[in-house]
From TrEMBL:
Residues 37-370 form the Glucose/Sorbosone dehydrogenase domain. This is Oxidoreductase. The lineage of its organism: Bacteria, Pseudomonadati, Pseudomonadota, Gammaproteobacteria, Pseudomonadales. It comes from Aquipseudomonas alcaligenes. Keywords: Signal. Residues 1-20 form the signal peptide.
Amino acid sequence: MKRLLASLLASALLAAPALAERSELGELQLSEVVGGLQHPWALAFLPGGQGSLITERPGRLRWLDGQGNLGPALAGVPVVFARGQGGLLDVALSPSFAADRLVYLSYAEADESGDKAGTAVGRGRLKEDMSALEGFQVIFRQQPKLSEGIHFGSRLAFDSQGFLFVSLGENNQRATAQDLDKLQGKLVRLNPDGSVPTDNPFVGRAGVRAEIWSYGHRNPQGLALNPLSGRIWLHEHGPRGGDEINIPKKGRNYGWPLATHGVNYSFLPIPEARGERVAGTEPPHHVWEKSPALSGMAFYDAERFPAWRQSLFVGALADQALIRLQLDGDKVVHEERLLQGRGWRIRDVRLGPDGFLYLLTDAPDGKLLRLGLLE
């Protein structure tokens, strides 16, 4: 009886809107699911009401059960390069998780010297008691390792065919985004076991990494499958200005650092830049002249809040907001800023199985928030 009452109380607390404000589409309901997270980076929902997995950048993977109770760090997680922007980053479930219980992690991995790092991806089997990942194996490594602590990219997404896409930052080594013999500044496409699909665009081409799907990216921290079109969307940080959304096509060059709408943080031009549009490169699908500092993205296709359908939600770190982009097909036709003025750096955005949006705030005492429209 006590367990039932505790469960009902927890559910009531999660349902109660602790904070509220209006949006263009009606009043919002907002509640805190859990706090006390140390720089949380990503969230993945487990099927069957089993809760979710949350990564913390210092190197912990946590299980949050269906009643909002946060468990200890899981065992079996790899050692990470927890320096600067590096650490334990994205988490994704296998498309066949119900059968194989495989959990994919992306993280910053040090080189042998411990001074530089690159993005790595591995997978392990989640124990039934949620205590550990068993048999964790690295299936992909960004080469060479060039980062001293920034621009790891590191989002994971499976497409409708089951291919794994991994976004990779250019480690603040701008020119490498154009070098096809390196994995900096690239979007790569892999089979679930990390092998290279035979129809990748550069397979069999000498001196080119076969993993590459598209290139010329800066620091992509948003990656999601558009459920309406079945295509992968990506967003990336510009320098000072020029954050952009792209729908990456096979073998295409997305310009960085040759083409950009931004300038250096010093306000001086990017040395390699030739303009906002450069022949042989793809223009941004959508661009912000002033950088919100984007992180995380989720398409809304649930039935719960019909007013949000045909919307893309992205987090903003510098602008400390949640951005709603209204879509007409693939076209962005309107932008709305939500949750401004609260000081929350929104690191990840996910659509929950209940039709609510779930947001992670990047802070030493980070939070998981639940957001919906007042019903």
